[in-house]
Amino acid sequence: MDPLIVLSAVEQVAEHLRREILRGGLSGLMPGVSSLVAQLGVNHKTVEAALRVLENEGLLVNRGRGLQRRIEEPKCHARPALRVGILLFSHSSLSMDYITELGHLLKAAGHIPFYAKKSLEDLGMNVELVARLAKKTKADAWIVCAASRKVLQWFVEFEKPTLALFGRRKSLPLAGVGPDHVKVSRLLIRRLIALGHQRIVTLARESQRVPEPSQAKRAIIEELNAHGISTGNYNLPAWKETPEGIHQILDELFRISPPTALIIDEPLIFHAAKDHLARKGIFAPDHVSLICSGPDPSFAWCRPSIAHLEWSSRPVLRRVISWMDNVAKGVNDQQQTLTKINFVEGESIGPALP
After folding, report:
1. Which CATH code of 3.40.50.2300, 3.40.50.2030, 3.40.50.300, 3.30.830.10 fits the domain covering 181-311?
2. Cys-Cys with 292: which of 88, 216, 270, 328 at CB 3.0–4.6 Å?
3. Which residue(s) pair with 164 in the sheet?
4. Which CATH number is 9-71's, of 1.10.10.10, 1.10.287.130, 3.20.20.80, 1.10.1780.10?
C-alpha cells in the first residue's frame, strides 16, 4: 500500500491553481489575492504562499507590487484534443463551403471534429431520437445546426457544452451564432411592398413555424400587418417537407389567389420550387417574384439572377472557434452572437402584377 500523503493548506491551494492553469481554466493574469481568498475560502497568508510556490515552478511571473501575476503556461504542455460532434440539419449541408471550412478550422485548433451518423432531418427533429443519438455518441462538445427550439432545450439540459449554429436559440442558456434574419426580413418586406406586392408568402420548414413562428418569420408577419396587409395561414402555410409536399403546396397557392412574391427557405427548396413553377409555366419575375432566404454558389449561374439573403461565414466561424477555445479552457461560454446579413436584389423580383 502506498503511504498516505497529507497536503498542507498551502500545497492544496497550489495544486488547485496549478491544475486550473494546466487545463486552461486560468490564463493571462492570475486573479488577485483578495479575489482568490474569496473564491477559495482560505486566508491571505495561505494564498500568498501558494502563489510563491507557483512562481518558483515558473507557472507565475511576479510583475511587482500591486500588479497581478502573469500566468506562464508551460510551452511543452498541450491541452487535450476535444471530440466535437457536429449535428447537421441534413446531409446536404455537407455541400456548404462553411461546413467544410468549420471542420478544417477545428482540426487546426487541435480538436477532433466529426459528423453525427444521422442528421436532424434523418431523426425527424424528434427530441427523443436526438437524445438517444447524443447520449450514445462519444463527444466532449456539440455543434448543433439549425435545430428546433425543443431540440436545443434538450441540449441545454445535457451535460456536454453545446453551441447552436443557427436554429431557434434566442434566450436559451447556451452559446449560439447566426445571421440576423430579423432586420433583413423587415427590409425585404418593405422593398416588396414598395414594388406593389400584397400577396407575399413564405415557405418555411416546420421547425421555423412550430410551435410558433421564429423571430424572423414573426418579423415578416409583423411588417405585413404594419403596412395594413391582413395575414394568416396563407402567408406562412404548413406543408409536408418532401418533393411531393412542395409541389402540392405550390399548386394550392397558385390555384385561387396566386402570391405575387414567394420567399423560400434554403437553396435546396428554392430550386425545387422554381423548377416546379417553371413546368407549370410560371416564371420569375414575369409571373411571381422569387427570393431565397439563404445564399448558394449556383445563384451566380442563374439567369435571371436570384434575389437572396447573403451573409459572410467568416464571423460565424470565428465565433465557433472562439467558443471551442473557451470550452477547452473550461470557460462556460453561453454568449449568443448575431452577424450581419444583406439582401441581394437579383433579377428574380420585380413589380407586382396588376
Report:
1. 3.40.50.2300
2. 270
3. 144, 176
4. 1.10.10.10
pTM of the model: 0.76
| 301: Cβ contacts below 8 Å, ≥ 6 apart | none
Q: Which CATH architecture has domain 83-178+313-339?
A: 3-Layer(aba) Sandwich (3.40)
| Beta-carbon count within 10 A of 5 CB | 6
> What sign does the dihedral 81-82-83-89 (CA atoms) show?
negative
Q: What is the 3-state secondary structure (H, E, C) of 133-172?
A: HHHHCCCCEEEEECCCHHHHHHHHHCCCCEEEECCCCCCC
- What tens-digit pLDDT sequence spans the chain (354 residues)? 444 455 688 888 888 888 788 777 788 898 998 999 898 889 999 989 989 888 888 888 998 888 899 988 776 555 668 999 999 999 988 888 899 999 999 998 889 999 999 999 999 999 999 999 999 999 999 999 999 999 999 999 998 999 999 999 999 999 999 999 999 999 999 999 999 999 999 999 999 998 899 999 999 999 999 999 999 999 999 999 999 999 999 999 999 899 999 999 999 999 999 999 999 999 999 999 999 999 998 998 999 999 999 999 999 999 999 999 889 888 899 999 999 999 999 999 999 987
d(CA 3, CA 337): 52
Alpha carbons 241 and 249: distance in angstroms, whole number: 10
b vs e for 40-79, b when ≥16 Cβ sit within 10 Å of the residue's Cβ? bebeeebbebbbebbeeeebbeeeeeeeebebeeeeeeee
CA torsion, points 170, 174, 175, 181, in degrees to nearest 10?
-10
Domain ranges, ordered by start, for the chain: 9-71, 83-178+313-339, 181-311
Beta pairing partners, 31: none
